[in-house]
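Lecture notes, unit on binding sites. The following record was shown on slide 14. It pairs a sequence with zinc ion.
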Amino acid sequence: MEEYSEFFNYIKKAADEIHNWIHNDEIIRITTHLDADGLSAGGIISQALYREGGKFHLRIIRQLEKSFINELVDEKRKNYIFLDMGSGQIDYLKEYLIDTKVIILDHHKPMNENKTPFIHVNPHLFGINGVTEISGAGIVYFVAKALNEQNIDLANLAIVGGIGDRQDKGKYYSLSGLNDLIIKDGSNAGILKVERDLRFFGKESRPIHLSLKYTTEPFIPGISGNEENCIRLLMAAGIKPKEDKKWRTISDLSQDEKVKLNSEIVKFALKKGLDRKEALNLIGTSYNFLDQEKGSVLRDAREFSSLLNACGRMSKGGLGVSICMGDADSFKEALKSLTEYRKKIAEYLNWFQEQDVLKEKKAIYHFHGGNKIIDKMIGTITSIVTSSNLIKSDKPLIGIAYIKDAENMSKISARGFPELIEKGLDLGEALRETIKNLEIEGEAGGHNIAAGGQIPTNLEEKFLETLDTIIEKQISNKNRNL
Ligand code: C5P
Ligand code: C5P
Ligand code: ZN
């Protein structure tokens, strides 16, 4: 705890400021990101403010772009909180929102570490790794807890944020660092149970064969997206899919049955050419939310996070925040988006495999979503392709898609691997530098391992070439310095 004391002092400062705003009856303008981390962050702050009697408005956006900041200026409000965003846009916020009160609760690497007139809570400023140790929702959780100790019951939402941002990089896909403190809170509050289990999607809520079908991490050729083979596999493992006419779920299986299922899948996966290490990688850490009903999507952190991503990526971010606030109707409606989203993911991944879309340069892999993958889904697919070992881990992957509502602009999503980060890869820096060097109209930012941006469509090739050179340099420079 000692190592984190300065960070927590600053968290307290942010909470005190929010407390003052509520006390002064100020209306707070909150802006958050549309992914699972952003939406759970939005859910946590909304619950915390609501409980204190605060007045607020929440907006969910794709990215904190300059055009959006200009919109905020026009609204002429006085109090702003930015969640899971803002650290990369400090200069711009400073320029345009200087006469207002701003709190930034973010874990993206700050653009520069100059003093700001704002309350800027960011783990990187305290020597804490914001990529793997704490998510945006995690930071917001700590602020909520500093506002009122009772908000400890929101710990599970912070775990959803960490899982959504793929911070489960510890042993057996577990969360670590500051996230551990949140796990302790959840466990102490009796709302969280951490277990080692099969890493399948929908363990709580889906019939076993559908769980297998919808599992895309790892992507198991012949299983992911293929219902018939999933049923065959269950038969081969001698597992009854139903009990008393009711579909069984993975969470209903006995330990013995889980072992049988696991070994049957490993056998199948190896036959289909899946890497042995990945095939054996089917065991993970599951975070079970005891405050949710058994059998519900919301009982499992990975499913919960997928549901939120589905809402955000299907343009229903508001539903996502309502779910985090416990709204049952929103939950029912969102389930439809989840099914649609999982179907789309499986379809896109099969397309990725079958269409030979992957291209390669010296230091990057890249692919174009073309007319198939829309801008809001390209990040998800680029993430899954890298994390389910559909490509080798020797170069980062850049996904590109046309932006639906911005003519002639393309969306970039870049994803790396931990071993490349150790070699010096920083995708956020690389994307920014490319745009700066080419002096093109565009915006970019993000973490070392996951970053994004947008550029003019007609400059895609030039962009990739420059990016390739910059990434090659990042990796070779670090190696030279070792
Ligand atoms: O804006 P934010 O930090 O919440 O988003 C990070 C994004 O990067 C998430 O969509 C997450 O899934 C993705 N990511 C990834 N691989 C990592 C880390 C993050 O795909 N190793
Ligand atoms: O959009 P995508 O999922 O690819 O974004 C990956 C990461 O890069 C996220 O953390 C996102 O917030 C960040 N990003 C950013 N600035 C942009 C685009 C993406 O900071 N212009
Ligand atoms: Zn985040």
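Take-home: The pocket of zinc ion (ligand 3) is lined by residues 37, 84, 107, 135-136, 165 (CB under 6 Å).
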